[in-house]
## 1
Amino acid sequence: MTIYYSLTFMLLAAEMVTFCLLVAPLPYKIRKKLFTFLSESPIVAKVAYGLKISFIFVAILFADALQRMFRVTAEAELAKSGHQGVSDVRTETNLAARKFYSQRNTYLTGFTLFLSLVLTRTFYIILDLIHTQEEYAKLKKETTSKPRGSGTQAEDASKQVASLREKLAAEEAKTRDFETLKKQASQQAAEFDRLATKYNEATGSVSNKRSD
């Protein structure tokens, strides 16, 4: 694996760790401090800006890997149909290895880009959830601390509490959906590793080759 794909893999691993940290069942106070720091820290803002630039290069790598995958797939199909007269087992195995590496690079860069979008959306959903919880706790405290006054004020407070409850339930439902997505992503990654291991066992003579 070349250096830029190695860096992409490291970025993907960092994204997976960050995603697990975001959706981890942390106590409310710790989660609030963490997300407040991430959303307000100028250092984090600079790091995020640098990551945006790096994702542009990852997108270019994804386009290049996708183009190579289509080209190698076409060459493999032509070899199977016999249009090129390929009968050497070593040549066929080399084509199969190139096809595998091109697919690996496409999945690696594509999943890195996809997970970056998931991370961004998850961060803002959880941040909205924290703000909603703060508003709900503040309004509930004000409602319980005030003496029973006019019926209009009580009705308005009840409507606000009900509205915040609905919003809080919606945000929690979105968070659960992203946890389900994380489980599916982990299953797909495990399946990819299994297929890669199976392929390396089947083509042991070329398993140590590097991609271009």
Note: Residues 3-202 form one domain.
## 2
Amino acid sequence: MSEKPVRFGILGCASIARKISRAINRAPNASIQAIGSRSIDKASRFASENGFPASAAVYGSYEAVLDDPDVDAVYVPLPTSLHVKWAVLAAEKKKHILLEKPVALNVSELDVILQACESNGVQYMDATMWMHHPRTAQMREFLSDPQRFGQLKSVHSIFCYNPGPDFLINDIRIKPDLDGLGCLGDAGWYCIRAILWAADYQLPERVTALPNPEFNESGVILSCGASLSWTDGKIATFYCSFLTNLTMDLTCAGTNGYLHVHDFVIPFQEKVASFYGASNSRWVNFGCEPTPTKHKVATDLPHEAIMVREFARLVASIEGNGLEPEKKWPIISRKTQLVVDAVKASIDRAFEPVEVGNY
């Protein structure tokens, strides 16, 4: 197993599955074994259009993928409301799980998924791709440097895009029975994860949703924001939207420096990504010195393929070497979901502060 590629099954033909299918094909330690859809014609068309190998099995149900003995792991890009059912069943079938975000409608559902993964000894990871880019590791080095950055004081993240009127009518992300968290679950997940990443995954004490979120006629969130605060004085804010021009900014301010990224979710260029850092800046005459430094980070693989490669490495270490599943990813997912839940609760409670530790 450790010398063979991890064989993936894909549940469903969501648009994001096109990107991950490409990533599996490009990852050196992974391969596509099967795809399943409620329509075998749709699954066949998807496989043909996305460069699946001729050996890949095509099924007219999700169950058939999970019953395939040659499938080692599954990628689950189904609507969020279906995650708990299919992720639990996958774990019970001993399939390792790469789960699309948002991973659940609430932390209670996620706990059911994580318990099933732990009980069955399978690896869990959410598909937050930017975390696997080598740029992210270099940014972490900068934030961890006491001389260059110092103590983290504030974070601001924003992820918004305007996909157009057809999306706002037909996409699953605005359907209350499919993805009831709307923009908060889709784009807000990235913003909240970035804040937690910057804070070294220390949960905030309190979350307060900002006034004037926007909803569609079904009550699904189309845009929202929130502030987060910690007992040590850190503060953070985020904004996410389906109604605003594409923006993917992350800013971290510390006592000695700051970091800024213009494209933290998806790099503008696939083979190189940049961030800006400044340390010990001072006003000098009509400007400031030193000016921010642009750091460029090259990569041979897109970050989604690096994610698949890392996930497949963990799976191979379990199946081939008898190691335990890596627990970091379930912990990070759960913390992200806790903050998502707190923001939603604050919106529902007319923007009252919500204590994260008590929610």
Note: The mean pLDDT is 96.
## 3
Amino acid sequence: MIFPEINSKLPNTPESIFSKMSGMASQYQAINMSQGFPGFKSDDYLKELVFKAMKDGYNQYAPLAGIPELREEIINKIENLHGKKYHVDSEITVTSGASQAIYCGISAFVHPGDEVIIFKPAYDIYEPIVKSNGGIPVPIQLKGKEYQVDWEEVETKISDKTRMIVINSPHNPSGSILSREDMLRLEKLLKNTNIILLSDEVYEHIIFDDRKHQSASAFKDLAERAIVCASFGKTFHNTGWKMGYCVAPEVLMKEIRKIHEITVFCVNHPMQRAFAEYLKNPETYLSLPNFYQQKRDYFLDLIKDTKFKTVPSAGTYFQLVDYSEITSESDILFAAKMVKEYRLASIPVSVFNIDQQDHKQLRFCFAKENETLEKAAEILSKIG
């Protein structure tokens, strides 16, 4: 054995719950409502635009930061929605999905010993990235089954070692959102500090019941310290394309691009051409709240007479389902049982919480065809 002992940077990182549950779904031929990807096709027109770009010869490296045409369209979108004008040359980078944007944003600024505040439950890439850079995650549990921020607790956790705070709204896995009051409270807490804000906004266009997405870009003092990360994959039903972007003040973006350059350098050129054209029609993203709310409402209506209890998701394409009236089993065991015995896969929420705090909730992805939602509801109606 050449390497008898490997000093792993992430020695205690388990298999992702998404990989585990999707693997079980495949093994037991279950309906997979666990992993967060849409179960329907992306727009044929968008795919035609990619093919056209390929035929037109856009098959070599794109500029490091992304093609100017796409950066301009993204900046216009943000200005129209949130009133913030980023500079096309120095404050935006097109990335290989939002995950790479998040990786670059954390890696560019977190040094050994730096603390990063992360709200739990949290998407499971934040902490490993912090740890791999020698940083120290400082978890704060969102409160109750509706997952609200306790800003007084946040204030107590901020120290002279705090380098970054990570927020995610609309929130995965809970489907909750940060309100304008939340963002103003955060803005006040960070005033007169050197703390960087990383705002994961991949579900920015999937928000319901006439609520408004409160982007960090929309708040002057936050925007001056924020790295805002977004996803074309989540927005336009093509997660496998791995296309996203981030925006940030020039002083931050300069460092982010250094990490971007040595990881991927640039991202898919023909797809950038396609998105640059596609974004010229704002309805491609402005229509999404209504589209997904219909999915959410249809799923909730189908299961309203079951023993599963719900509070309608405020955003994302995830719905939490409370099974506490059915069994006292842990959510991990109950989720596994549902796959094996009922052929329906979901995500147990406790794996994202501090000390695996268990509220007896499962996360279902409702970005599926109605037929899939109907089959899932039929199964849920037979449980308990």
Note: The chain has two domains: 17-42+286-381, 44-282.
